[in-house]
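Thread: Newbie trying to understand structure tokens

Hi all, I'm a second-year student working on a class project, and my supervisor (Dr. K.) asked me to get a predicted structure for one chain before our next meeting. I've only ever worked with sequences, so writing a 3D structure as a token string is new to me. If someone could post the tokens and maybe explain what I'm looking at, I'd be very grateful. Here's the chain:
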Amino acid sequence: MSTTTTAPSRGARAAAGTADYLDQRTGIGTAVKEFARKIFPDHWSFLLGEIALYSFITLLISGVFLTMFFVPSMNEVHYEGPWPELHGAEMSEAFASTLRLSFEVSGGLLMRQIHHWAALIFVAAIVTHMMRVFFTGAFRKPREVNWVVGFVLLILSLAAGFSGYSLPDDVLSGNGLRITDGVVRSIPIVGSYLSYFLFGGEFPGHDVIPRLFTVHILLVPGLILALIALHLFLVVLHKHTQYPGSGRTNANVVGYPLFPIYVAKAGGYFFIVFGIIALMGATMSINPVWNYGPYDPSPVSAGAQPDWYMLFLEGSLRLMPGAGTEIVIGGENGFTLSLNVLIPAVVIPGILFMALALYPFIEAAVTGDKREHHVLDRPRNRPFRTAFGVSVLTAFFVLVLAGSNDLIATHFQLSINDITWVFRILFFVGPWAAFVITKRICLALQRKDRELVLHGHETGQIVRFASGEYIEVHKPLDEHERWLRVQHDAHRPLEIEPAEDSRGVRRKGYRRDKLRQRISRIFYEDRVEPVTPAELASAHSHGDHDSLGSVHQEHAAISGADVPAGDPAPTGGGSRLVAPVDQTVDDARKK
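---
Reply by user tm_fold:
Sure, no problem. This is what the structure looks like when written as tokens:
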């Protein structure tokens, strides 16, 4: 039997030669081989971070185009372009170049709108991605640093959005800069100096647009790129988290290799995200600056709202009362402390953001848990964390709605004063109510899980015994579903040593331990223990009811339920049950 070989084509030889050249000089082959074999779990929620990444790439592509035509100058010119309503109007070169981009440059308006929509989706994807990480506990050891990196990326995305939003120098963005000036000036001691530095003198000055342009196209994107690279490096270093299920442990990753499956998926998903953003830019008008006109410090119109990610700050300012909130320190010629600006624009956002940034470290300190976690939590199994996250989101949504109180009043013909008071009350009552309700829901879902594990799913089938007794037949859970509902650890409040030792000497560090114990009670005093093997064995011992046949025969097939009678329930609840082996584990690469 003869065999024939086909000589490689010229392109194949060139590619092989190039790869060999680079590998011998950089060792890139080893890195590519290791990275290509990396296993990633398959779940739709992991795509939220990819949406943020692809939106940022879209921002870079469209931003390069816009940079070629935008003029970051506040020099005054008279407009003589194709938009008739502004003929002869005095405006800055920045606003005039924005109009030229919109009406005279081929594809300019499309690129402007793609850029703006991509910015909105970029911030939204980061926020949603962080919500997924928070509620599933993906920030736990060893990923606390990566959580901080993601938090800084969120702050930088807000800075990028605000700096870009302010560049056209129209009435809407100019009003936003005036608010920024007031917020900066409200900062004690250094506020006026920061304002002079930012605006190059008294507001509005002549330097703010060029400086914002440098921040927007150079400083912030550079930092974002560096942090995205660090974020992805840490994801690869720590391996990817995965949702709980049979076969998934902290020692493995169940999924598919990066190459070729996820490379193909990622490439296709980028074009989907880019296509949707391009479609939105082509069909949905956004930020029509020609309707607002060039910036003039004198007019401030109603119905003017910033982009959605800055609405919480606008709403906070609108809810704060003005009367009696200014304090003069040091007599008539002293320093004026503007609490009506400082509290809503600096203190409240600072508290919300710092709570978000420090939460992983607070939870780790409260639980005393120093283990590595690669399997995610079900939100219902961490009631306090889930309730806390929902309460923070509730406060955020109240502030967002308050930022549009004038539009709500005009659209629904309501009193703006009544709406403002309703939002003031909701800002304090809403997060508390959301916390209580969410925590109760989580505990109820945990109790439902216990009931399902112990008794199975209701079938609606009623059986009558010879004795006249009626029962409903329950369908037992299969081993995979049972494991999903019992595999978590039930954290308990910390137990500390007594205040005094055996000799009556007060123990050093007792006050610190006592404080940790009190906080841990807030976190874990209300809890539902997962089903233990002893409880499961007891629940499935039905005596005469076992004569029902195959349904109850399945009850006897309990993984790890052979606990001797009379033994106490083991600590850790359902984690003592043996995890079933999933067929997909055969495809998992052990780390």
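A couple of things are worth pointing out once you decode it. The mean pLDDT is 84. The radius of gyration is 31 Å. Feel free to ask follow-ups in this thread.
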